[in-house]
Design goal:
This protein has 686 residues and is α+β, with helices and mostly antiparallel strands. The protein has a six-stranded antiparallel beta sheet, with helices on one face. Helix 5 runs antiparallel to helix 6, helix 8 crosses helix 15 and helix 19 crosses helix 22. The longest helix has 53 residues. It starts with a helix and ends in a 17-residue tail after the last strand.
Length: 686
């Protein structure tokens, strides 16, 4: 624990005047999540919904409005504030003038921008973009200068043709060439600078939106996330990339060049008088076609999305049910369905691509015809001595400065139309209710085994008519072992998820040590208990990090745990031992074996002591049973253990058994003793 970091956090909370409940919640959070580095500070600010920005230490921070700041230099942390003319540090409850520290390249400052948020803005996405509105004048200024330099090049070209060549002023070529090179270099430099600035802003926006969406999706209710497919998750995460693509690259440059098209139109009017009608007509055509393009493209995009989703669903079905399809007689029927779906998806994709290609060609043709029209009409003006040859060439160059950004924007207009869809999707995701959001209540959790009470607990998942749990009632004493059993689909796994705070119930009460489960923070609760699901879920870490689970376990304890579950020989066979990365053990073609996955999970279970342990079908084979029973007896009384099982050997050693059937408790209590069998003798008459 870094005491300076903790002090800074407490000082920031005092400065922004949070209430006592938030202070207490923060203390509980810090006790469960030690603050060791700057990332831990940011985690707390994220959880408390405190808006902040992270910047390198510099004098420019005084220009950013903020309530307070944390200056981080190596292991030192200082609560401070930057004013226009002064630097302040927080001391004895107030800001006092201080000497600004000599900043290093590695120093960072966390600016606390405002007080705690009480809710999300109705248009969260727009509010995020507002933070970057200050960059727009700079981009427009750069674009103005770049376009002014670009404007001068056609006039230089005109002077070369009319004055140098026409007037045989060869001695002026060098000066004009140097001027042209300088102007072109400045224009190129400004465009590169604008491109870098746009890319930086786009990447920052994309990163911030993606991080926020990811945090949101991690904490949405489990029932809701299960209804959302993997493709939907990926779509939400990649939405920010769509926004980024609209800002950076040629499209972003065209957006900022478009306002200055008027400069080139005026220049054409000055040089070619009524030739100015050509670019005006071209712009009108671009606009009309772009609107029509967008309307048709939106329809085609919907068709491609629907047909592509159908094809993806069939591919997923094949992957998940391949054994059944191979062994049954319906493979031909499935292949027919896939052929139709694949043909439709390919047809829609072809229509989408050809539609885009058609309009791309039309936009190109408008630009080309505009230039041809200027040449044809300009020749007439030359014969009428209203325009010089150099003026015609300059006009041709100027018209390309009008049609090029218009062509780019028209061709990309369907992408610009996706902005509203992306914005709506992002806002919908952000406004979804997530567990623990804007709630800062948490009772202290002790290291002793808890008492648990369930009273009329009822849960119905969205879209289901029958409840998964209905009126579930039973009590668990501290340190007891509870075995939950029942037919498949009776609600056993759902009951464990409810106890772990993963699913919110609609009716009833769950109490831990007499306190309602809703009075505990879900994240802190799950850090306190141990939850082990039915299916082994392994993420790509090293063996050491996976078993350690960020709880700072000594290496010898990990080795002892692996030895207790019979994995010593397996570990010894690995070249890097505990530092072996699980990515090296599995791949798409060779996932972790059942033995490897269960060994890691059992070692993790043996390595940690939880006050409450929740286990879903903890024994997958008879070979694991003896090891698990030894662990169970070693932890009985020290931890409250709730498990599901169909194994009689495990159920019979439980202190209580809970029998579920269709989400309802049919029995809860000690295992009934078997009735003694009375032997009877057959009586015969002589």
């Amino acid at each position: 624990m870094n005491s300076q970091y903790v002090d800074c956090i407490q000082q920031i909370l005092k400065i922004i005047d949070v209430d006592a409940g938030v202070q207490n919640f923060t203390n509980e959070w810090i006790s469960s999540n030690p603050v060791l580095n700057s990332a831990d500070i940011l985690d707390i600010f994220d959880r408390l919904m405190i808006p902040y920005e992270v910047h390198p230490a510099s004098d420019k921070l005084s220009k950013i409005q903020h309530q307070a700041a944390i200056y981080l230099c190596e292991d030192k942390a200082t609560t401070c504030k930057y004013d226009l003319n002064q630097y302040f540090e927080f001391d004895n409850g107030t800001f006092v003038p201080a000497i600004k520290p000599n900043s290093k390249a590695t120093d960072i400052v966390i600016l606390v921008l405002d007080r705690q948020k009480e809710r999300y803005e109705s248009d969260w996405f727009e509010s995020k973009l507002v933070a970057y509105k200050g960059i727009i004048p700079r981009l427009l200024g750069i674009s103005l200068l770049a376009n002014l330099f670009a404007l001068s090049i056609p006039f230089i070209t005109m002077s070369v043709y009319d004055h140098v060549i026409g007037g045989d002023a060869r001695n002026e070529v060098l000066g004009i060439s140097i001027g042209a090179i300088l102007l072109f270099s400045m224009m190129l430099l400004l465009k590169v600078l604008r491109s870098q600035l746009l890319t930086t802003v786009a990447n920052r926006i994309s990163r911030e939106i993606t991080q926020t969406l990811l945090r949101k999706m991690i904490h949405v209710p489990l029932a809701h996330s299960r209804l959302t497919g993997a493709s939907s998750f990926m779509s939400r995460i990649t939405t920010a990339e769509t926004i980024k693509g609209m800002v950076q690259g040629p499209l972003g440059g065209a957006l900022f060049d478009l306002p200055f098209v008027i400069i080139f139109i005026v220049a054409i009017g000055i040089l070619g008088t009524w030739l100015v009608i050509v670019p005006i007509i071209a712009l009108i055509l671009y606009f009309i076609l772009a609107m029509r393009h967008y309307k048709n493209q939106a329809l085609l995009n919907n068709q491609v999305t629907i047909s592509g989703t159908t094809r993806y669903s069939l591919i997923y079905e094949l992957n998940s049910k391949l054994d059944y399809l191979r062994s049954s007689q319906i493979l031909g029927n499935w292949s027919t369905r896939f052929t139709k779906a694949n043909r439709l998806a390919s047809k829609n994709s072809f229509s989408q691509v050809t539609h885009q290609a058609k309009y791309t060609s039309i936009y190109y043709a408008i630009g080309l015809l505009s230039t041809v029209a200027v040449i044809g009409l300009g020749i007439e003006l030359i014969f009428a001595q209203q325009l010089s040859a150099g003026g015609l060439i300059a006009t041709m160059m100027l018209i390309s400065r009008v049609t090029s950004p218009a062509q780019m924007l028209s061709n990309s207009y369907p992408r610009l139309g996706q902005y509203q869809q992306a914005k709506q999707q992002i806002n919908q995701t952000i406004l979804q209710k997530a567990e623990g959001e804007f709630a800062y209540q948490h009772h202290a959790l002790t290291d002793s085994a808890p008492k648990i009470d369930l009273e009329q607990v009822t849960l119905r998942f969205p879209g289901q008519l029958k409840p998964a749990l209905s009126g579930v009632t039973f009590a668990v004493e501290p340190g007891q072992v509870i075995a939950v059993t029942g037919p498949i689909g009776s609600g056993k796994t759902t009951l464990l998820e409810v106890l772990a705070g993963l699913c919110d119930i609609q009716n009833g009460v769950i109490k831990y040590n007499g306190h309602n489960l809703t009075q505990y923070d879900p994240q802190l609760l799950r850090q306190w208990l141990g939850f082990y699901g039915d299916q082994p879920q392994i993420i790509p870490l090293t063996i050491r990090n996976f078993i350690d689970d960020n709880r700072h376990v000594e290496e010898q304890e990990i080795l002892d745990a692996l030895d207790r579950v019979g994995a010593s020989r397996w570990l010894a066979s690995l070249e890097h031992g505990l530092d072996t990365h699980l990515n090296d053990l599995e791949s798409l073609s060779h996932p972790l074996s059942s033995f490897e996955a269960h060994v890691l999970l059992r070692a993790k279970l043996n390595c940690h002591r939880y006050p409450l342990v929740i286990l879903d079908n903890p024994v997958a084979s008879n070979g694991e049973k003896e090891i698990f029973l030894e662990w169970l007896e070693a932890n009985r009384g020290n931890s409250t253990i709730i498990l599901t099982s169909h194994d009689p050997d495990i159920i019979k050693i439980a202190d209580q058994v809970v029998l579920l059937d269709k989400g309802t408790v049919t029995y809860a209590g000690p295992i009934p003793e078997a009735e003694p069998q009375v032997e009877t003798a057959e009586v015969t008459e002589d």
